[in-house]
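FORM 7B: Structural annotation worksheet

SECTION A. Query
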Amino acid sequence: MKKVLNIIKSFVLSAFILYGYNLIATNFNLVIPINLITVGAVGILGFPMLFVLVLIKVLIF
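SECTION B. Predicted structure
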């Protein structure tokens, strides 16, 4: 039960991190959509995954 709560906590925290990033990034047109894949990636792989998503956004789009 404790492990499930930690996973839910990390997903909620990653959603807030993505939301905060999107508030700042709207000025630079580097918005990352908040969906299950991006929240799950940031939730599981941690904060450095946000930088990877930004890098993918800059290089591909």
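SECTION C. Observations
Helices lie at 2-25, 36-45, 48-60. The two ends are 40 Å apart (CA to CA).

SECTION D. Sign-off
Analyst initials: ____
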